[in-house]
Structure formats: structure tokens, C-alpha cells
Specification:
single chain, about 250 residues, Rossmann fold, 7-stranded parallel β-sheet, 7 strands
Length: about 250
Amino acid sequence: MAAPKMFDLSGNVAVVTGGNGGIGRGIALGFAEAGAAVAILARNEDKNRGVLAELERLGVPAIALKLDVTQRDQLRPAMENVERKLGPVSILVNNAGIAVMRGAMKFRAEDWDRVVETNLSSCFFLSQIAAQSMAQHQRGKIINIASEYSIFGAQSGIAYAAAKGGLVQATKTLAIELAPHNIQVNALIPGWIDTDLTVPAQSGKFFEEIITRTPAGRFGKPEEMAGAAIFLASHASDFVTGATICVDGGFAIR
């Protein structure tokens, strides 16, 4: 019985940005199944309500708040709202993200700012807010959702690649600074996961190239991100910090 208890998230409050779909939804539901209270922060209220109903059916305390992570003045009030309703946040998953795929010579300044703000800056500011609370309780887990483009060059989408690469470096730096407060900071790199965002890549020559390069021979499922996230959110990972873990069916090693 020792192994299941090691991954038990009962008594934790988890925040998942972009938790109303795709990878974020898979992680949020996984956390709930492991016993955590869960708050999802995302922009689409209809999708928020749908995932909130799923969380409530799992029998855990849960809330869904409308939040655009690019609006910095909304971040602290949102986190404070979570703590008022569910208790101190002990797990933060920075998952919200967007991509604009355009060549560097035609990349617009406003797209650069929006992509970097969503994929990097908001992750830091939410981590800062969460860490200030976690440090008071001397425990916490911060999980950043990075990208294969954190470690590989991209043919287009320079802002996305730069932001996700920066997120891995921010993960390492935060891990060092927050370790004395018993806060572990790690990153997950998803491979090609079956979500609304990857639908355009699931046909044609590009799809064949992805499948050929992926030893597992398929796209992953959003819920397959949950296992690694639960590990990083649980006591099982208390001596793991500053790590970047690929959940990609082997894509990164071929």
C-alpha cells in the first residue's frame, strides 16, 4: 500500500491554468482522481463549466475561474480567490499557452508580445505569487508545461520556441531559489498530444513524419500527461527539482 499513498494528493489544492481543455483538462482530472482540490483558470467560461462538472463528479472540491493570464493585474486576485474558496495553493501547473506560427521576417511585434506574455511571463508571475504563499507553509510544487521546441529549433513560430525555451531556464532558476522553502519546480515537455491545437497536424505528410519519428508510433492522449504531473505534484518527487521530463512517446530521442 506504500506506493499508492506516495502519489496521494489528498489535502492539496492545485491550480491549473488553461485547465478547461486538452493537456490542462487531462492533468486537472488526474489531480482530482488522486484526491486534490482543483481550480481551473481559463478564458472560456462555457468550457470551464464543462470541466468543472467533470471535477465535481469525481467528488473533490473544485472551482473554475475566468482568467486571461496575459492580464497581469488579474493574476493575484485570481490566486487569492482560489485560496479563499479552497485553501492554500500547494500545486501550480502553468499550462496556458498559445502559438503563432509565422516566419521570423514577417513576425509581428504584437504577436511576439502576446505569445511571450502567455507562455513565459504569466508563468513567472503566477509562480511568484504561488511561491510567496507556498513559502509560508514550507511546501509546494510548481509544474511548467514546456514544449519540444524548448529543446529543438523550430522552422517557424520563433516567439513560441523562445518563450518555451525560456520557460525551461526559468524552471531551473526557480528550482534553485525556492529549494530552501521546500518548493520543487519542474517542467514537462509534451510530445504530439491529441488536442484541438494539434488537429491540423493529424493528417498529410507532416503527420506521417511525426509518427515515423515517434517510437510509440502514435499521438499521445491528454490524460497520459496526468501520470507525470501527479508524480511531480506528489511526495514521490520531493527530491526532484529543476528537471525537465519528456512525455512524448520517445519523440525527443530519435
